[in-house]
Amino acid sequence: MMEGTPDANAGSKLPDPIKAGVAEKLFRLDCGRSLANDESVWTPGENAGRSIEFSSTCWLIKHGSEWLLWDAGVPEAALNDPRGWSTLPKLIVYHLDKTLTDQLAEIGLKPRDIARVAISHTHGDHIGNVGLFPNSTILMQQAEYSWINSPDGPNDNVNQLMALARKLLGAPKNLQLIDGDTDVFGDGSVTLVSTPGHTPGHQSLLVHLKNSGFIILSGDVVHLQENFEKNRVPSLNTNNAESIVDEKNQADGRNVQGDALHQS
């Protein structure tokens, strides 16, 4: 189905910090690492030909008796493969040291226990394991879904990413397309925040924890601190102006969480 549910309120405002509910637990999961051969793709005009490493991170959130997975990482087929796996073979190669399935098992879960999978955007290193969750509700922005199913544009790399996204996403049985900021559970504890620019339907996740307060999981809003400072936009981003606006919004007063965290 491609429809909303009563507890996901599209278009809602960001949560009231006084009244917002809380998520019980937040786990960081290792979803891959990569080596790119040309940093200037992410820093146009600088660092041409220099290699750069990235990490792929997934997050698991417990809300009441329900589990939500944020992003799905590099495909498990890449596990311990010395050749790695790639979204753009001439540019970047991903490696996987742990499977998502094994990391869920360490917490006492199986893929079927995950009620919802929310994705920041449809690049392959973020949706590589969506197929592990055939019965989960997949949450993504309508703008993102429309984009990957639109005609190719002038950037061949972006076109390749769109084609791969269509392949990896497939046709989820329970696809929930949303439009803008969305309160996932209806209590302000977990909010999808529209942050387009990297892709047309890129979104971030605002999580409210009892001890840590509000934490925003920013997806690929920004890759490097210098990009904040210099208003640099990666060449793979689909909209420069939107990218800069969202970088500044994330920098101004929001806690961008990138470290391992298990909050209870």
Question: Which short descriptors sum up this protein?
Answer:
alpha+beta, seven-stranded mixed sheet, about 260 residues, disordered C terminus, globular, 12 strands, about 20% helix, disordered N terminus, single chain
Mean pLDDT over all positions = 86
Gross geometry:
globular
The helix/strand order is EEEEEHEHEHHEEEEEHH
- Residue stretches low in confidence (pLDDT < 50, at least 5 long) are 1-7, 251-264
Percent helix range: 10-25%
Spatial arrangement of strands, main beta sheet = 5-2-3-4-6-7-8
Derived from helix and strand composition plus strand pairing, the structural class reads alpha+beta
Total beta-strand segments: 12
Largest sheet: 7 strands, mixed
Radius of gyration: 17 Å
Q: What portion of the residues fall into strands of 2 or more residues?
A: 25-35%
Individual helix count: 6
User: How far apart are the termini?
Assistant: 33 Å
